Amino acid sequence: MSDSRVNRGALVARNGHARIGVSVVALACVWLSSGVRAETIGGALAKGYLNNPNINQQRASLRALDENIPKNYAGYLPQVSASASAGVENALVGESPSGGNGDFLSHPRTLSAQFTEQVWNGNKTFNSVRQAESQVFGQREVLRNTEQTVLLAVVTDYMNVLRDTAILDLDRNNVDVLQEQLRQTRDRFNVGEVTRTDVAQAEASLSGAQATALTAQSTLQTDIANYRQDVGDEPRSLAPVSPLTRQIPKTITEAVAISQIEHPAIVASLHGVDAAELGVKISESALYPTVGVTGAITKEYDPSGFSPGTQILAGSLIGSVTIPIYQGGAEYATVRQSKETLGQTELQTDQQRDVVRALVVGAWGSNQNSLGIVRASKAQVDAAEVALAGVREEAKVGQRTTLDVLNAQLTLLQARVQLVSAQHDQVVNSYNLYAAIGRLSTRNLGVAVPEYDPRVHFDQVKNKWIGLRTPDGK
């Protein structure tokens, strides 16, 4: 911050004419350097969307879960294997009735290929694939919820930096004003207009303001660290932000209704219910017969028991049906367990609906109150400025003491800080409400950033029967 900027702020504060506009950045719109291009909230959201490690690890988790589709689909495909064997066999033949005997040396060798195809397994494979798909769809909603959380954190960090930068400016300007107040009080003390008590009061106010400014500076450094963690870049010359208005539903009833349909936490829970229902069917498949086919082809050279040079080619195709009768009761317990898990998941979904509804109601109230709080804070600042100007004029003619002036100055500072905080809260509350109904996304906010589409990787691997490399070449 340049000295001229501080002096201008101090001069305005001394004259009692400082004004804070609608934007929270009225005192902080140029934060580091006027030569640096301002960072907008859209730019910060784009960086967070691309760089935030929480989002990226959730995307990686979803890509890993996509592989469950081909893993379960493998139940439809045959299992093929090949084997080979070779050895040496020495047979010593004793004397025969005809008087012959001998020592026979052979080299038996075998080549074979086998395949196994499961024709039907009680629809276990079919339901397993469907369950894997439901789990993937649910994980997509978890990713969307993570994106909401990160985007809201970015907005909060952005506004925290703006708010606390403005508060730090106010505190530093207040220090300058109190330094001037102390100088004037000492001059008046030297000519006998005030007492030593007035000087001490001015000194105490100045020391307290300096401590407050240092605290504000520490708070701002914490905000910058949080911004760097969520956005992946340092905040530079942050531009003003307006609260969301057009995107917000008109009534709380509409907001709650939207949240019950669109909030990713609820949608993820519903997919969890689908997966649990399919889990019951998968458990029940253990009670059904299984049908399979096994085929093999074998070529033997010099097999045991045959004369040297003998070759045998054999093939087989065998169908089998296995009917479970009783397996100790474990499969029945598994079915009952799956049904209880389904019931638990349904109850969790009901609970999630109540949680989201409460979030929407709370966010709606905070957002609705924000406008009134900002309006009242502006009126408080205007009144405090008029009061400070009057007290200073009255102090010049001896009708007010130094303590009265200091108290009026402190009241104005507190009113300005409250206004800055109210403007911060108005913006954050609007974004928080938008997240509570489940619509906080880069697309809905119009952020210019390539949108991550989880369907691309899903389509790349769902029918991939062979291969070790991931679609990105790892």
Structure write-up:
The protein is an alpha+beta fold. It has one domain: Up-down Bundle (Outer membrane efflux proteins (OEP)), CATH 1.20.1600. The protein is built from twelve helices and six strands. The protein has a four-stranded antiparallel sheet with strand order 1-4-5-6, with no helix packed on it. Strands 2-3 form a two-stranded antiparallel sheet. Strand 2 (89-93) and strand 3 form a beta hairpin. The longest helix is centred in the N-terminal third of the chain and has 67 residues, at 124-190.
Structural class: alpha+beta
In the CATH scheme, the class would be Mainly Alpha
Full CATH superfamily name: Outer membrane efflux proteins (OEP)
Unreliable stretches (pLDDT < 50, length at least 5) are: 1-35
Element order: H for helix, E for strand:
HHHHEEEEHHHHEEHHHH
**Could you give a short account of the major beta sheet?**
4 strands, antiparallel
Helical residues, percent: 55-70%
Q: What percent strand?
A: 5-15%
Radius of gyration, in angstroms, nearest whole number = 39 Å
Overall geometric form: elongated
* CATH overall fold name: Outer membrane efflux proteins (OEP)
For the record, the CATH architecture stands as Up-down Bundle
Distance between the termini: 48 Å
For the record, the count of structural domains works out to 1
Q: Which strand order spans the largest sheet, edge to edge or round the barrel?
A: 1-4-5-6
Count the DSSP helices.
12
Q: Tell me how many strands there are.
A: 6
Mean pLDDT: 87
